[in-house]
């Protein structure tokens, strides 16, 4: 079996080769399938980027039309799946609700679970892209006690999601085009990020030949944690706590530097980026504009800006190369859009979905894939003899 080396957190260990996303963390570069994130943010949109990530090339108009129309024909949830939501407590966190419902898709679509049948993988891909936004919107509706809306398939994916989330059955929902554009942009920025915790989870679970729904459900649970996707909610909670305690940014930063009670500056730092996260740079540039239009909580925005300014000038953060990451400003934008804090990580999941799917498909097709099975360094007791209960 050869030499086993310890690499906690896989800091230096590649688990696969991939053609999907390129990151140069020192230079702050991110590309999907070779295209710089800045160009995609400015000139593309979420549905096109989803196609690009999953199929490897930008679609022609005909390919894009077919892809969008297939997705819009699968947005409905089975009526029995809708009843799922009744079983959760009202104050359930929407992330486990989302992962449970996605896991349940493998019970509803038993005709499309084979990882090795290209048609089945394709239909599962479309079902996920179409149904996860509906599930997410219903998780929100459940939490506020409002009726579910059927999807309106004349609308685009993001618009449909916003209508199912914020609309009411008896009223027309005039979705604000600025809101649609802003959320679409945030989804583009979240769509893939190579071997992060949730994507690696999707690949690892999938490497056992578990089906796509089961693998994505596992990825959603990995994203839930506050060091990963949960950071966007944690940033807002942090900003609110600082405000509630009088808005003293300097004393909060001091606490972080002294590592008091394990407090971290949420939305800062990244395993790979040792420079400004290019996604955060785009969000920061657009944040003022979006927040200006949507009406931000200016106090929290001021605290965030002051935090960033203070941290970027402080030796602790400079020495450790800690910069704002994608989650630092997104929470403020989601809040301004009307989403509750608990829901932010669900929005991250909606954005990351095409990336997870693309990686799962690449993993399944790669002849080099083996079941993921890390080694360990055993540090427990040496061999010893069993002691009967009455002698312990
Ligand atoms: N605040 C204060 N100190 C920090 C932070 C932070 N946010 N991040 C890292 N450090 C310190 C850490 O204490 C350590 O210091 P020392 O060498 O004195 O022990 C040093 O920087 C290296 O940190 P690490 O924990 O070894 O770094 P990592 O690569 O394992 O962790 C991270 C990466 C993102 C988990 C971490 O930076 C962090 O916890 N950030 C806050 C949570 C967050 O914003 N997560 C979102 C990440 S981006 C989107 C996503 O993946 O979802």
UniProtKB/TrEMBL annotation:
SUPFAM superfamilies: Citrate synthase (SSF48256)
Alphabetized GO MF terms: citrate synthase activity
Pathway: Carbohydrate metabolism; tricarboxylic acid cycle; isocitrate from oxaloacetate: step 1/2
GO biological process: tricarboxylic acid cycle
Active site: 270, 327
Family from the record: Belongs to the citrate synthase family.
Entry protein name: Citrate synthase
